[in-house]
Amino acid sequence: HLSIRRQRQMCIRDRREAFCPYFAQMWLGQDLDKVNADLLAIFTTDDSEVQQKFRLNDHWCLAINQQFYHMYYAFGSKGSVSPGRLYPETEKALLALLWDRMEYKDDIHLARQSTWWMIGSENHDLVAKVSSLISSQIFMNEPDYRDRVYPDLGSGGGNMYWFHRMYGQDAVDGPEGRANDKDGKSYTAADHYAAWVDYFDEYFSERARKGFFLEMASPGYMAVTVSYLTDVFDLCADAALVEKAEMFLDVVWADWAQDQLNGVRGGAKTRVADGSRWQDAMYEFARFYFGGAGSAQTHHFAQLLSEYELKPIIWDIALDRQGLGEFAYLSRTPGEEEGVWPRPLGTERTLLCDTESRLLRYSWVTPDYILGCQMDHPGAIHSHLSTQKRWQGITFKGEDGPRVYPTEVVQDEQGNLENRSSMGYCRTVQDKKVMVVQQARRFSQMNPDWFPAKNFGNLDFGIYFGDGLGRTVEKKGWIFVEQGDAYLATRVVMGEYAEGWTILVDDASPGLTSGLIEDSYAWSPDRETIYLKDKYAGMIFEASRRAHHSTLEAFMADVLDNPLVLDKTVVPGFHVLRYRGCGDNAAEITFNLANSEMPMVGGERVNYAPDMVMDSPFLKSVYNSGIVEIIKGGDRQILDFN
């Protein structure tokens, strides 16, 4: 166990404090009189500073509801861990505070909307809706609350989602949504509970049929998403829903198991605060499942209480890295907006995700590296989150998961990369071990009121290498990396007139192709990042392993011999890139650097909506079938979400 003092230090952020240390003291049975007295004082305080420190008046705090209902179910009068450690007076105050937080937030009309309509963000949406399910279950079994009638709002999602004044005693709730879905009926906690059971029954089936998550592999937010979904499995009383929640968690963990090296997630990620971060939320969850230390921090503490266990087939997939060999994993993910004009009233704080989303995640997984990206249909209308801080690149096997990836460039006073949190959005295409990337010149996005439209384009761009890589060699415009038993070749593809061309003034070169400019990038002073001299240059990533090239020199010679062409378009300075990687079976990739055209692989346009929603040798599901197969050797787990 972490010491109580250490937990307090870990929970405090910018005057914030969580309830994890109090939870830990009740778990250990320490100082129960003082713990209950402190909690009672916090739950009933009128002190604005205390309210703000614990975010008591922030109805959209990601952590408080989860900590409250776990306290109730672990230590309350009906507790399953140590009943009675939460004293009756403290429990009464906790329930009063939880009711106050959920009375207007738990709107039964929201349970009747599409499960693809997400309030605020994916993690906020799940916090609100899982909290509605679990709290209504609590209140329908509490004599003082079972007959209470919830407000008949019907005004839309995001009630009290108001950034102007959210925290202290003088918090302002802000306006409600503008919908008018109220039906004039009276609904109690039991009605709400039944509605949310139906909602999550559909939620799990829909994600199994059409893909997950919008905040795919987010290093931080997956702690929220996975822990709250695990709470449905652990705390909900509906046996059928619990069974479906367990199946869905099995799919989530199978998805992770095949796309990681030593617990470090590879492939494309969304909402990445630090692209160099390797020890993410799923790593910490997995560490505990596979026999390592758990975490008592916010969200992670719930895992220590959970009865969920990884199935043997998932253990086998996760641990048999050599046995899995090399393979492609394709999966369809949500994030494209419905594109409905005008937006329905009441959705001012809501994402309206299209159920037929055309966003395709691609990972090439090997025992020594994972190269991955997300390919988006050029006509896709993005939500405000599907493009936010998108990460794609290569993750090597090795200490701290070394990685190389394209990123927006913001420099400090010394000229080094100041942040690794890219707001830039890139177009990509990938086939096996070759990926082509370019900062998008244009893309379409629809934003709800809570996320005003900002400019995410025309940024300075570069490629981050970090300081944890092995041997690096530069030759003929390429940068080659040797890391363990893996290799990487990167090339910034810059052609003539990258800085502009003027009709009747400049004389373009003859021929149908442009010459390649080798001097296309510059290193940062710390040699961790290269900066593109053309912010819209194409970037080629090609990887290999020692199993295919015995030395870095052999790989370099193979790459330098590959066809790389810039075809001219009508206007000088704008080109179509064509590249074919190493190997006799490599397909030529055609990528238009001038416009948002569909790329081609081997002469065929990319299919952004394939027949399979998940497709690898180890995880398969036909789109919209609701049947998921997890496969390893002679073992097979078939999950039917219908």
Explain what the structure shows:
The protein has 642 residues and is of the alpha+beta class. A twelve-stranded antiparallel sheet has the order 19-20-14-10-9-7-6-4-27-28-29-30, with helices on one face. Helix 6 (88-102) crosses helix 7 (122-140). It is globular and about 85 Å long. It starts with a helix and ends with a strand. 48% of the residues are buried.
Short description:
With 642 residues, this protein is an alpha+beta fold. It has 15 helices and 30 strands.
Structural class comes to alpha+beta
Q: Got a strand count?
A: 30
**What's the tally of helices?**
15
Cα separation of the termini: 41 Å
Mean pLDDT: 93
The radius of gyration computed from the alpha-carbon positions, rounded to a whole number of angstroms, is 26 Å
Report on the biggest sheet.
Answer: 12 strands, antiparallel
- List the strand order in the largest sheet: 19-20-14-10-9-7-6-4-27-28-29-30
* Range of helix content: 25-40%
Q: Beta-strand percentage?
A: 15-25%
* Model regions low in confidence, pLDDT < 50 over at least 5 residues: 1-14
Oligomer: single chain
Shape: globular
Which key phrases capture this entry?
disordered N terminus, 12-stranded antiparallel β-sheet, globular, 27% helix, 15 helices, 6-stranded antiparallel β-sheet, 642 residues, alpha+beta
